[in-house]
Task: structure prediction
Amino acid sequence: MKFSEFKYERPDYEKIKVSFDSLIHELKVSNSCKNQLECINHINHIRNHLETMGTLAEIRHSINTKDRYYDEEQNYWDKYSPLYEELDFKFYKELIHSKFRKKLEEKLGRQFFTLAEFSLKSFSPNIIEDLQLENELSSKYTRLLASAKITFMGETRNLSELTPFMQSRDREMRKNASDSKYKFFADHEDEIDRIYDNLVKIRTKIARKLGFENFVKLGYIRMKRSDYNPQMVANFRKQVKKYLVPAASKLYERQRKRLGLSSLFYYDENFKFNTGNAIPKGGPEWIVKNAFKMYSELSPQTGEFFNFMLDKNLLDLVTKENKAGGGYCTYIPDYKTPFIFSNFNGTSGDVNVLTHETGHAFQSYLSRWIEIPECIFPTYESCEIHSMSMEFFTWPWMELFFSEDADKYRFAHLESAVEFIPYGVTVDEFQHYVYENPEASPKDRKTAWRNIEKKYLPHKNYTGCDFLERGCWWFQQSHIFNVPFYYIDYALAQICALQFWEKAAVDKNSAWKDYIKICKVGGTKSFLELEKAAVDKNSAWKDYIKICKVGGTKSFLELVKLANLKSPFEDGCISSIMKPINNWFNSIDDEKL
Result:
């Protein structure tokens, strides 16, 4: 079946509830582990179907936010998803108090029970109306950004379509495109302020109803962070400030020099080279065709997977009117298929988003054996290891997309990876401020954002743009509105992905050394002896496949250990990864790119 043939049908809540309650009662009175497992399997079958319907509605609504049918379905899910969450709540209560819990953990995995316990802490029937309002406000923000119609260069464009102009070689063009983008946000500043203020207040209300002082602890519980806490994250931010902020500042200064500018302004940051940024040498279909070649050559597993995605039309990649912004990967349980959504706009970001979301999709493809809906994807920071690492594993194939500009792409890509982490902790510290100070005014929040920016992003120069100088950059960061506290995840995962980048380079050198070794021994060894001597362990890719296959059955730090990586929280981790990165940058004459 193609994606267009995947059937959507609005669930009947009352019927689902009757079935669910009956199974939960059966689970409660079951007198054997075997019977409980059968009940759990039946319950998960229902939950997977609900997940399928909700996901199909979400995808089709995000593809066209003006589609009346799926707009109404999105409204349905905004209203009813907390009611379905209540059914999960009843299930989790019976699950974690099962007299056969130890045996069930052996069969289903400890992580499932950890996730269930966290879900119990983050839900109560008396917050259902509050959750519905939170969903409604989040959807309102998404629709507002998708509705953007900005007249630029004689045409009406959405926010994504301005991106190529914001990376133009013409500096005046970059400035005008940036100003047009931020004018849209400035024109809607009061509305966005109201939406976010209401989100902060409703989330704080929910947290207090659940017995928390503020939303911070509840935010961590919602994110299922079972093996680290705010104090560990605060220490991570300190390490970023010590090691990565200076490194990123040097890269921005290097960029300023190679562009020949006296000052690097906000509209210059995404323009990397005077010869122009690396851009794909063809359009969307051409990119996908080359991606198929790349993944066919990367490994048998990735080749099979990408062919599967294309055969079922599981990618919606190109920006268009009324399409929601950004990019994401999701999973449709009943069909055991990932789905990739993005907004191609003719920049190198098209390749970035494709390799990034393909990392998510490939992981879920290898995790299709998992029937527990919570455990298909791991928690967010673990998910991002898969996506960000895939960006680096595909480096050897960048000539397919950028031809002679492949080295330019690789330099800018690694540069952006380093520069991103200080931004990631900026978003995180801002969210801590917001939810620790829920009564702060919109103006207070903007002032706090600007102060935090100056701490981690000291290069920022907003001269000429009052909107950004007042601390409004975060208006465009949808995670802040839609998934609170989802962002440090990217910074943690990027540290892990950079370790994979280093390991992959070591593996490449190791393969060459093995080749030289068997050349030198000539005919002194038999075929099987030579084959054994020449084994390319390629530990980086094997470790990557290993953590993809286990999906969400392990916690973040368990996955890091399984991948033979250092924990980002470990003292010395960040400083150790910066050494090979700095060496790589120092080996490149970027002014010749």
